[in-house]
Amino acid sequence: MKNMSSWTKKDLLGLYELNKEEIELILDTADSFKEISTREIKKVPALRGKTVVNLFYEPSTRTRVSFEVAAKRLSADVINIAAQESSVKKGETIIDTGTNIQALKADIIVIRHDSSGAAAMLSRHVNISVVNAGDGWHEHPTQALLDIFTLREKIGKIKGLHVVIVGDISHSRVARSNIWGLTKLGAKVTVCAPPMLIPEEIEKTGAQVCHDIDEALKSADAVNVLRMQFERDLKGAFPNQHEYFKKFGITKERLEKVKKGIIVMHPGPLNRGIEISSEVADGANSVILEQVTNGIAVRMAVLFLVSQGKEKP
Amino acid sequence: MKEKAKILDKVGIERALMRIAHEIIESNKGTQDLCIVGIRTRGAFLAERLASCIEKIDNNKVPVGILDITLYRDDLSLISEQPVVHKTQIGFDISDKKIILVDDVLYTGRTVRAAIDALMDFGRPKEIQLAVLVDRGHRELPIRADFAGKNIPTSKNEIIEVRLQEEDKIDEVVIVERD
Amino acid sequence: MKILIKNGHIVDPANKIDDIRDILIENDKISQVAKAIDTKSDKIIDAKDKIVIPGLVDMHVHLREPGREDEETVFSGTKAALKGGITSVLAMPNTEPAMDSVENIKKLKDIINKTAQANVFICGAITIGRSGKELTDISQLKKEGAIAITDDGASVDDEILFLKQLKNSAQEKILVICHSEDKLLSNNGVVNLGVISTILGLRGSPKEAEYKRVERDINLAEKAGAAVHIAHVSCKESVGIIAQAKKKGISVSCETATHYFSLDEELLMGYDTNLKINPPLRTKSDIAAIKQGLKDGTIDCIASDHAPHTQNEKEIEFDRAEFGKIGLESSLAVSVTELIKTKILTWTQLVEKLCLNPARILQIDKGTLGEGKDADITIVSTDKEFIIRREEILSKSKNSPFIGKKFTGKVEYTIFAGKIAYVGANYR
């Protein structure tokens, strides 16, 4: 399983532009890093003297903390910048902020932004590494990598698996990154949602579409349950959140009808009783907390690899 | 690159390891609290072999671990080829243990320095001893081998290649000269 | 002042010339077009191996003045036009204030008189403030010099209101230029709706937003008996609808912009905001349909849709960046590279699209090299490749996706009103 190809990129902007070997290299490297978090002294000196800046334009405690822990376990110095909603007309542009961070001699910028393409734009204007921690509806590569890592660890392989992603696919960067990563590694991906939450021509990207969750789950090895933002996503599609839960919520009753060992993932934070029942979230099929643990290893691997990479896209 | 001389063949390597095993047991007065940690890649294979040599002599199986020192290297930003990080596997508590650190070639001492740092992050061993198959000189740090299979004076233009069955499909040690 | 252009390959479809000729310019008029003119002149331009065409007429240009002089001015825009071989432009009315009143047009006319370096024709607005609510007085606008009307950037959603203005325009014999977009359907889209918008995670604008409105605009024009011109046609379906309308004898003309036959949506994968354009870049099959429409005559002309924006408005998040790209300095080169080199159009056809047809649609006496006509002439070299460089752009704004790209079809001389107004670097 060990992968001998080498990493050359200075950035991680998305999984769309990575090939199978590069994704596997990240997963293999994460595999090696996972052990570090089990030690008494959870720290290695790999990024000693390097500075990682978490530049977050959207509030996100989980992802930010996960990157921070990952960077610190690699001995990097971490600076968190909560750059709230940058207005277009006033305030500093992302590019100005980025070049300023570069002038501080930071080494890696981890960026979270509500505009698709924000990480790519930042990357074009700085020479230091850029890691996308989620941009608009575009990509959230480290979330997908940790999902895939967890699946691979649980099942042993990705090729040939059938993974269902359920929820608001249209507005989900997690869904997109998962589709690219999983299909490149040879898994079959079905996206499941009411029609208005499925993006245009998604089937052209290699994902299959199903509007019936029970049908989709029939042959699934795993289901990735997206967080539903009722106010934003579901207005118009459903009269209320209970209606969504009835039609698409992942419940014990639903899982009883499908493969026994089906793996249930969720990127968090959970909306119990909207997209997932508490029984399932806390049940035997759930790997939700393992995802959190694996997130550290995956992000350590990403930070380490990009810090070694030299190629800008 | 051309091969200049073969220093050890299969039998030579076996003899060297057996002698080191004897020396380790003798200087530690047995195998009490002893464990072996090999440095990836070839040090790990030599560690396994050394453990079985010790078992043959003392009839006692000492624990063996594997150390990947990539994350502790002091030249990460200098090397051009991206290193691949492999797993560190030390399945036992090293606190108060006597650790025999094993590598194939002792050269500048930087790898051993990194390995010692890495080990220290796992706990507080009683002592660390160093066993290598070949000591070729040119140290850049105050580090020496406690056990060496062979001392070979080399020039900096030469490379010592240790080839092991597990990785290279042959057991031998050769001197190669850079063009 | 006499200028003699010798040995050039003249392409002048209005006079059916596609051959080596000399051109003699006296003062601001073309006085003679013939083989081997031998007369004394103040200046001889050797146009051997060059193509000599009428100065281009670009009927879709945003000069931004008055109001957004930080983006472009009449002066900088017309300077840029001359560099691109364009000697006449139609200035879009979406300025601040919009060209919706006599007073505003007077103000613009004054600026033009003082600063324009090429012909600037004025386009009035269809509605006050281009807000689609209240009609402008087009007879007044026309009297003041507007030669067409449009709310470019917006379409008049209110059908009854629009029909009324179309009827007025039929009476006033003034051309109505339609920005055909149904904003309900385009739904704040920033790129073409499809697999690319899905991959990029950007809001998509469906082709229906364009072609359904093209269909409506043509139907209303037919009802009103007015002449309409569809601006910036970008998709296959629009081309089909216009072809049908023309076949039925409806008085409709249309233009496409250079980017709709040279750039497709797949280029957006890097989120280059200079490729954020409205209507959005479409698919490869739409590009093929646009080229076919140019070839078969459905599409009458090529415009630049020159839309200058400052760096502040473009080098920001993709969804927040302004729409549009500049094009005055590149439209001829892009057309030659994409349409002549690929043998989709002949030079004669291209000159129709870039010079003659827009002049005819706007009913201005331009776009030809006939004797006695205004001496607006462009001399183009087609043999060598050149790269468009940011530092050479004359427009105040630099938002061009063509920077760094290789083209053929370099403007060597632009003669405007009998004077050499632009000389390429090779001849300076």
Explain the overall architecture.
By secondary structure, chain A is of the alpha/beta class. Chain A is built from 12 helices and 9 strands. Chain A has helices at 20-34, 61-73, 94-103, 118-125, 141-155, 173-184, 213-217, 230-234, 241-248, 252-256, 278-281, 288-308; strands at 51-56, 77-82, 108-113, 129-135, 162-166, 188-192, 208-210, 222-225, 263-265. In chain A, helix 1 (20-34) crosses helix 5 (141-155), helix 1 (20-34) crosses helix 12 and helix 5 (141-155) crosses helix 6. Chain A is globular. Chain B is of the alpha/beta class and 179 residues long. Chain B is 28% helix and 29% strand. Chain B contains 4 helices and 8 strands, in the order βαβαββαβββαβ. Chain B has helices at residues 10-27, 42-58, 110-120, 165-168; strands spanning 2-8, 34-39, 64-67, 98-106, 127-135, 147-151, 158-163, 172-177. Chain B has a 5-stranded parallel beta sheet. In chain B, strands 1-8-7 form a 3-stranded antiparallel beta sheet. Chain B is globular. The relative contact order of chain B is 0.21. The model of chain C has no long low-confidence stretch (mean pLDDT 97). In chain C, helix 2 links the parallel strand 7 and strand 8. Chain C folds into 2 domains: 2-52 and 374-395 and 406-427, Urease, subunit C, domain 1; 54-362, Metal-dependent hydrolases (TIM Barrel, Alpha-Beta Barrel). With 428 residues, chain C is of the alpha/beta class.
Helix-strand layout with pairing:
The complex is a heterotrimer of chains A (313), B (179) and C (428).
Chain A: H1 20-34, E1 51-56, H2 61-73, E2 77-82, H3 94-103, E3 108-113, H4 118-125, E4 129-135, H5 141-155, E5 162-166, H6 173-184, E6 188-192, E7 208-210, H7 213-217, E8 222-225, H8 230-234, H9 241-248, H10 252-256, E9 263-265, H11 278-281, H12 288-308
Parallel strand pairs in A: 1-2, 1-3, 3-4, 5-6, 5-8, 6-7, 8-9
Helix pairs in contact in A: 1-5, 1-12, 2-12, 3-4, 5-6, 5-12
Chain B: E1 2-8, H1 10-27, E2 34-39, H2 42-58, E3 64-67, E4 98-106, H3 110-120, E5 127-135, E6 147-151, E7 158-163, H4 165-168, E8 172-177
Parallel strand pairs in B: 2-3, 2-4, 4-5, 5-6
Antiparallel strand pairs in B: 1-8, 7-8
Helix pairs in contact in B: 1-2
Chain C: E1 2-12, E2 17-26, E3 29-34, E4 43-46, E5 50-54, E6 56-61, H1 74-83, E7 86-91, H2 102-115, E8 119-124, H3 138-143, E9 146-150, H4 159-172, E10 175-178, H5 183-186, E11 191-192, H6 195-200, E12 204-205, H7 208-224, E13 228-230, H8 236-247, E14 252-257, H9 259-262, H10 284-296, E15 301-303, H11 311-314, H12 331-340, H13 347-362, E16 377-381, E17 386-387, E18 406-407, E19 410-416, E20 419-423
Helix pairs in contact in C: 4-7, 7-8, 8-10
